[in-house]
Fold this sequence. Notes:
It contains ten helices and 13 strands. The chain is α/β, with parallel strands linked by helices. Helix 7 crosses helix 8. The model has no long low-confidence stretch (mean pLDDT 93).
Amino acid sequence: xxxxxxxxxxxxxxxxxxxxxxxxxxxxxxxxxxxxxxxxxxxxxxxxxxxxxxxxxxxxxxxxxxxxxxxxxxxxxxxxxxxxxxxxxxxxxxxxxxxxxxxxxxxxxxxxxxxxxxxxxxxxxxxxxxxxxxxxxxxxxxxxxxxxxxxxxxxxxxxxxxxxxxxxxxxxxxxxxxxxxxxxxxxxxxxxxxxxxxxxxxxxxxxxxxxxxxxxxxxxxxxxxxxxxxxxxxxxxxxxxxxxxxxxxxxxxxxxxxxxxxxxxxxxxxxxxxxxxx
Length: 278
């Protein structure tokens, strides 16, 4: 399975400004969050990217892509009708291809030479099926994520057969349906903010129904897809930074800085700041 397209959702009223924020990358360059996402995606083999944006924001987003404009298509979500709707309106861009789905308010830092996106794309290509990136996460953070239940694939401690997916479950729901054998007690597999999805998922999404608030969520279609075809979850070797959380951009900045060549200088500055702050 070849994955050459990606979709980035960046139209939510509370999140549309986040991809435009700037920070210093691990190499020391000042870039926008969107530019860093595009850099990683294109370096992982993606050839074209559709960015779902809110009306009236295209000029700002064009200014934030940092040289990638020719490989980017902007898709306007004229109404804010949910994450699933944002993905669905990218159907014409995706066509009949499998694609990488990203959210515009997450950044990633790999703990190995291969980037997080490349890790996911390589597994999806090898396994020829949809794969969602996940990270073992403490149950106190369940209200912020979609959560996967399943079992480990024999011979690969980071790969899981997906059986159930729930959006922001309570600890009780998670304990009943989402415990994964082998994970530390109180930890669950939460979405990492990136997925490789297939044309059959888009067909499932097109058949799905809006919720009581009139919005089209994504997770129910992911769960339905898991019931109808082989669906895997990959525990990536890396970290996610949700810049929409309080101090999320600060944590991302620190993570990038500590992964760069000036780590010792940054560490010394942090220690000095801690010592001087009461």
